[in-house]
Amino acid sequence: MSTLKHKILLHLIILMWGFTGILGKLIHLDAFIIVWYRVGIAFIALGVGMLFLKKSFRVKNKTELIKISAVGVLVGLHWLTFYKSIQLSTASFGVLCLSTTAIHVSWIEPLVMKRRASWLEVVFGLIVVLGVYIVSSDFNLNEYKALVYGLCSAVFAALFAVFNTKLAETNTPAQISLYEMCSASVFISIVLLAQGRIDASVFKMAVSDFWWLLFLGILCTSFAFLAMVNIMKVLGAFSVSLSINLEPIYTLVLAIFILNENEVLGFNFYLGSAVILLVVLANTIVKSIKGGEDSAAKLRQP
Questions:
Q1: 143 touches 269 (CB < 8 A)
Q2: Distance from C-alpha of 47 to C-alpha of 55, rounded to nearest angstrom
Q3: pLDDT tens digits along 53-81
Q4: How far apart are CA 16 and CA 246, in angstroms?
Q5: What percent of the chain has pLDDT over 70?
Q6: Can you give the pTM of this predicted structure?
Q7: DSSP output for the chain
């Protein structure tokens, strides 16, 4: 029964992560402002959650804190480019680009972890390129910009997934996430200050935007992450990594029913999407069979 409850909770969290792409369209704010609120709210909520759960805030040393903070900047860049991609195109397209994260991990991980790259991963990467080509075959200028932002978002996600794997060797997941949200918040605040955008206007928003931001920062980020740590202990990395690959499917379905994106997406999009998603799923299965854990499933903040 406990396993069934954790499976249900896992899919509810993945559904929430899939919904974060939809929020890029539902929240009527600039991508920078959305991410600024998300990391700030998540930082506060994580801090309160850690106090409630009596988790330690102390990291191993200052060097580790600097490393975690640097990765937090990557988290901020990942979300900025992700929401920018969605706002330039569609939620479906933004999350499709993000689904290539596992493929980027395949070539980044050997560089960071000092291991040999797999020829199979190279083949998977080439097939993903084909899928992206099919999807983008009839794009306009804005959609090409969205493609660049979306793929950059996936690269940033892959980078922080790999670096988080190393950081988790000496720090708890809760500590890593807390200080990454803090540094991401500071980084984005500095950028907004440099642009002269920190004024009364950033606090002006619709009531619906306010509630969606709270949902995004507290439930989709803080709660989802802390809950996922416990879920992985019960279900294991194999089940979790396979299930997480359903996220873009959930987003595509939600986008059809909530945003009616099926009216603006053509055959090429769905054909290319099928190619990319099949490769991502195959990559996860192959890695799991070999006994390795999918790094993108660990400490990822969708």
A1: no
A2: 9
A3: 888 888 888 899 999 999 999 999 999 99
A4: 12
A5: 89
A6: 0.85
A7: -HHHHHHHHHHHHHHHHHHHHHHHHHS-S-HHHHHHHHHHHHHHHHHHHHHHTT-----S-HHHHHHHHHHHHHHHHHHHHHHHHHHHS-HHHHHHHHTTHHHHHHHHHHHHHT-PPPHHHHHHHHHHHHHHHHHTTT--HHHHHHHHHHHHHHHHHHHHHHHHHHHTTTS-HHHHHHHHHHHHHHHHHHHHHHTT--SGGGG---HHHHHHHHIIIIIIIIIHHHHHHHHHHHHHHHHHHHHHTTHHHHHHHHHHHHS-GGGT--HHHHHHHHHHHHHHHHHHHHHHHTT---GGGSS---
CA–CA separation, 121 and 182 (whole Å): 34
Q: 36-45, 237-246, 276-285: lowest mean pLDDT where? A: 237-246
Contact 272, 44 (CB under 8 A): no
213/205 Cα distance (integer angstroms): 10
161, 171, 267 from 302: Cα distances, Å: 11, 21, 27
262 or 192, which is more confident: 192
- How many Cα atoms sit within 13 Å of 199 on the Cβ side? 5
SS (H, E, C) 52-89: HCCCCCCCCCHHHHHHHHHHHHHHHHHHHHHHHHHHHC
